[in-house]
Design the sequence.
């Protein structure tokens, strides 16, 4: 299945990969392509930097979907029905919204917001926004206003965290039962309850000895206040888990030829297979490509004798720089050749050569899309072209 | 053989950098490398540890796993099997160890509670483990507690290690460090935990014992993250931060002046490009032009990113782009150790006089 078909048929395209590989640019380009194919498209970025706004050539983005002007999007031959909306995840607003919307009562809401565990934990959720991103995607998808949602996942070290976020939340919610037992109500229900022969009192005292009484008290308060919300969280976590694995969803792994990014891409690819998460395509961005045959510049040293010395120096500098680039290209070419071992369908392996100009505005994205090609040709090992100097 | 693009960036290549700090890390015992994932933090920590060990110090190189299964990075950089939870000798004067949050929690509780049967009954239950794991900062705290235990360890009445180099798991752990006092005051308050947390903070926020180095790459996101982290560290009462190390700077790029675009009319009138075309053909000329335009773009962005970092007034060290043969990461470590010596970073880890 090629990229156009993915973008025509799927409802959710999740772009993931290591930070700094051009994930936001790729997401914007795929969304633009989706709109060009006539779909009502939304691109959601989690990156707080201005990249998506810059890539789309708009002044600002916030947590509400913003429609790109028709004139920006439309060009000759473009489908009339496609639209493109863009928005940025505001992790704090998403979390506040969750609590406000789902708290069973104003009292429970205030107790949660004031609880020290919540206040610490919420900071962690905002700084590592995988879970909140997943909640937002879930809400947007359920809203049904778009044919296609392209998600630019958070720039985490472990991109997989995005996919396991809802499962981890589910596990956490199960785990809370233990603490719930330590609330007065929970204990009443379990009179004489014992765990492997130890009374709850002894266990509580053990935990308290390590954590101090305040922490345990705060945890109990937190779970008591959260009680009425658990079911909703559990249901949404389950919905997200099945959405991630459904026919409607696909993933695009974005990487650069840097070793660290490639390592993460491989890890993601392997985990997707193991986790039954549908894989759509691998995009290798910023590949240095050099197609000159070995020795092509040999004649240059002899030529140019008629030049003045300043130009002669510049000529040498141009050639020296070329060989620096050539060693980068050789490295990238080896990296791509090593990727062939993954056995990815060549139509799903897309290469974007290093571009001479920054990808900004719709024009830049169109250039990016034109440069993005299935990598079969680029994957040919350099062999005879290799040259040392 | 390695592809090594030699040499530091030419003078005047970028902005004026703040001079690297005079303060050495010689008397300090704990060196923490942090930074966004993928910035070469592990490679730097390894090279730094190797360099110190080769200069006569007894060094422990530490990596940590906050969540179970990741096999770690350091062993690959020395070409050995994954690191165990007890220090293992990597070479003369150098040991490596991996701290796992969960194992650290276990040994912590056992040491503090001394009642193994009860520990097993309670903490070995998956639901309890998951719940306990949720306690704010617990994993981070356990890792740091184990780190401090290594720092305190003595053999024959002297510290077992002269220097501990810690490859911190991304920036999260250092951000936790920043929040530690609030965690103690607002959440832990009393109990064994609170006391231990205060001790850990006392070590990590003491610039005479601990230094934090931020690893970054000359790319936008890593640079912004390094800048923000540096600024947040400076907001501490006594910041134990040494500076920022910029990894992977492509050196040796020569100045070729302005270049025409690939479709520009000026292509015909550019003497050097015309000479290349004359000698080697249009295709070769275009390849040379493309290569130079890509490098020029890289160089411009390096300069911009270094400028961003320079605005923090942090001490900055730059290291050249080095890439080993695919699949042989261990070859990188000694090369990088040489590079950081050349960059003057070694002065920070000389053995005390």
Sequence:
């Amino acid at each position: 299945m090629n990229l156009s078909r993915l973008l025509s048929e799927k409802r959710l395209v999740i772009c993931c990969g290591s930070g700094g590989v051009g994930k936001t640019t790729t997401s914007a380009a795929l969304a633009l392509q989706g709109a060009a194919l006539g779909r009502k498209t939304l691109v959601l970025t989690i990156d707080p930097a201005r990249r998506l706004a810059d890539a789309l050539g708009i002044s600002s983005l916030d947590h509400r979907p913003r429609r790109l002007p028709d004139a920006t999007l439309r060009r000759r031959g473009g489908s009339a029905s496609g639209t493109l909306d863009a928005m940025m995840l505001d992790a704090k607003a998403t979390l506040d919204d969750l609590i406000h919307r789902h708290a069973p009562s104003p009292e429970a809401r205030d107790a949660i917001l004031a609880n020290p565990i919540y206040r610490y934990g919420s900071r962690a959720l905002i700084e590592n926004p995988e879970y909140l991103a997943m909640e937002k995607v879930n809400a947007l998808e359920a809203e049904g206003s778009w044919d296609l949602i392209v998600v630019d996942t958070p720039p985490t070290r472990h991109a997989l965290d995005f996919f396991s976020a809802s499962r981890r939340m589910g596990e956490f919610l199960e785990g809370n039962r233990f603490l719930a037992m330590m609330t007065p109500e929970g204990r009443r229900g379990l009179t004489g309850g014992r765990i492997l022969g130890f009374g709850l009192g002894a266990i509580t005292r053990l935990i308290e000895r390590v954590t101090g009484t305040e922490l345990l008290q705060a945890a109990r308060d937190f779970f008591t206040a959260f009680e009425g919300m658990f079911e909703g969280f559990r249901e949404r976590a389950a919905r997200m888990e099945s959405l991630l694995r459904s026919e409607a969803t696909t993933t695009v792994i974005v990487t650069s030829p840097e070793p660290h990014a490639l390592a993460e891409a491989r890890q993601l690819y392997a985990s997707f297979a193991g986790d039954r998460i549908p894989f759509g395509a691998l995009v290798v961005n910023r590949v240095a490509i050099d197609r000159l045959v070995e020795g092509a510049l040999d004649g240059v040293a002899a030529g140019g004798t008629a030049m003045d010395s300043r130009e002669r120096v510049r000529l040498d500098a141009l050639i020296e720089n070329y060989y620096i680039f050539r060693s980068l290209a050789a490295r990238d070419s080896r990296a791509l050749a090593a990727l062939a071992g993954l056995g990815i369908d060549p139509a799903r392996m897309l290469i974007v050569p290093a571009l001479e100009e920054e990808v900004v505005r719709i024009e830049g994205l169109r250039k990016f899309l034109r440069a993005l090609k299935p990598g079969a040709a680029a994957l040919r090992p350099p062999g005879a072209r290799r040259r040392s100097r | 053989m390695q592809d090594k693009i030699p040499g530091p960036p030419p003078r005047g290549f970028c902005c004026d950098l703040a001079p690297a700090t005079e303060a050495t890390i010689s008397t300090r015992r704990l060196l923490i490398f942090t930074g966004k994932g993928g910035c070469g933090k592990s490679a730097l920590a390894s090279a730094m540890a190797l360099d110190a060990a080769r200069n006569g110090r007894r060094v422990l190189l530490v990596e940590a796993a906050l969540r179970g299964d990741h096999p770690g990075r350091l062993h690959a950089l020395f070409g050995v099997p994954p690191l165990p939870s007890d220090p293992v000798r990597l070479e003369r004067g150098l040991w490596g160890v991996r701290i796992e949050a969960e194992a650290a929690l276990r040994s912590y509780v056992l040491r503090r509670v001394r009642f193994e049967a009860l520990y097993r009954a309670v903490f070995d239950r998956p639901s309890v483990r998951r719940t306990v794991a949720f306690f704010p900062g617990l994993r981070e705290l356990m890792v740091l507690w184990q780190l401090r235990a290594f720092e305190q360890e003595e053999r024959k009445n002297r510290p077992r290690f002269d220097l501990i180099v810690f490859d911190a798991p991304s920036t999260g752990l250092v951000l936790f460090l920043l929040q530690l006092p609030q965690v103690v005051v607002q959440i832990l308050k009393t109990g064994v935990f609170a006391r231990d947390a205060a001790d850990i903070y006392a070590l990590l926020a003491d610039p005479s014992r601990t230094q934090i180095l931020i690893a970054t790459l000359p790319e936008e996101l890593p640079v912004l993250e390094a800048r923000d982290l540096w600024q947040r560290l400076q907001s501490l009462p006594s910041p134990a931060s040494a500076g920022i190390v910029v990894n992977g700077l492509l050196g040796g790029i020569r100045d070729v002046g302005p270049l025409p675009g690939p479709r520009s009319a000026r292509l015909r009138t550019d003497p050097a490009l015309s000479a290349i075309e004359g000698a080697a053909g249009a295709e070769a000329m275009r390849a040379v032009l493309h290569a130079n335009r890509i490098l020029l773009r890289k160089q411009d962005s390096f300069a911009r990113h270094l400028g961003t970092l320079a605005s923090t007034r942090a001490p900055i060290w730059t290291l050249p782009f080095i890439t080993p043969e695919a699949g042989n990461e261990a070859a990188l470590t000694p090369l990088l150790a040489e590079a950081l010596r050349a960059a003057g970073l070694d002065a920070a880890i000389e053995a005390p006089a």
Q: What stands out?
A: Chain B touches chain A through 79 residues (CB under 8 Å). Chain B has twelve helices and twelve strands.
